[in-house]
Amino acid sequence: MRYRTRISVDKIFKVVFKTTGFLVLALLGGIFAMLVYNSISFFLDIKPLDFITGMEWAPTAKTPKYGMLPLIISTTIVTFGAMIIAIPLGIGTAAFISEYAGSRLKNILKPAIEMLAAIPSVVIGFLGIVVLSPGIANVADLPNGLNALNGAILLAIMALPTIITVAEDAIHAVPNAYKEASYGVGATKWQTLRKVIIPAAAPGIIAAVMLGVGRAIGETMTVLMATGNAALIPTGMFDSVKTMTATIAIEMGEVPYQTTHYYALYAIATVLFFMTLFANLVGEFFINRFRKYHAV
């Protein structure tokens, strides 16, 4: 009787878990279908190539311009700047927590880093306006510090908890036999970390980086508050920029329903969807390469 009960429970939970898995796929497919459906309405009026390569975003002008190249470049430069800051800092912190920090310090650092993820993005954006922006303006002799660098630093701060937590778990999961073998041939702790532990944990570290990229590229409120929102092609990190997410957040609440401008925002969201998908596919490619490397 107990055997039959266990078999029945296993079958029930198998169905439940399979249903939840397909439900997630259905939700993702529904979101994608909604974006594509509304984007098609926009591309009936504006050519896709003109939209992607257009140099000016001015949908409310007398002669509307729907060129999103400044938005793509702005999003890319802010995300890239954030990752330049967050990746070495995040991986270094994860390595320190996993390999160098004592148990007492580790028990303090890990909760503190995880608490950083709980800070609302609007609070980080506010700190960027009142603290970081004046500092950047003074150092760079600018009229204000609402620019790409400000946004990149704030996004790096927001991506750090994800990168550190996932990377630390990956480093911690490396078998002790790897470390012992390295120490056995006379390697130092630093050599072991650099040449054995980090390469062995590479799939998890890459996954952490890609999660950080997704966190940065999809952030809205912080970049809306801290980057200046100038829809121009930036020439450097000290220029004000307007990201794709900020554009959607600013304009969606005021745009007339079912107009070309309205559908243009869906088209931006579709491009952002594909950018995020591409980043995830690249990350998955390198993760699989490292897994095959370790399997050999």
UniProtKB/TrEMBL annotation:
A single GO molecular-function term is: phosphate transmembrane transporter activity
Q: What is this protein called?
A: Phosphate transport system permease protein
**Membrane topology designation:** Multi-pass membrane protein
Question: Membrane spanning segments where?
Answer: 21-46, 66-91, 112-136, 148-167, 196-217, 262-282
The family classification in the record reads: Belongs to the binding-protein-dependent transport system permease family. CysTW subfamily.
Q: Which positions fall inside the ABC transmembrane type-1 domain? A: 72-283
Example of a GO cellular component annotation carried by this entry: plasma membrane
PANTHER family per the record? Answer: PHOSPHATE TRANSPORT SYSTEM PERMEASE PROTEIN PST (PTHR30425), PHOSPHATE TRANSPORT SYSTEM PERMEASE PROTEIN PSTC (PTHR30425:SF1)
Q: NCBIfam families from the xrefs? A: phosphate_pstC
UniProt KW Membrane keyword: yes
Query: What's the superkingdom here?
Result: Bacteria
Subcellular location as annotated:
Cell membrane
Listed A to Z, the keywords are: Cell membrane, Membrane, Phosphate transport, Transmembrane, Transmembrane helix, Transport
The record's PROSITE patterns line, in alphabetical order, gives:
ABC_TM1
Checking InterPro entries in the record gives:
MetI-like (IPR000515), MetI-like_sf (IPR035906), Phosphate_PstC (IPR011864), Phosphate_Transport_Permease (IPR051124)
Functionally, this protein is described as follows: Part of the binding-protein-dependent transport system for phosphate; probably responsible for the translocation of the substrate across the membrane.
Q: Is Nucleus a UniProt keyword of this protein? A: no
- GO BP, one annotated term: phosphate ion transport
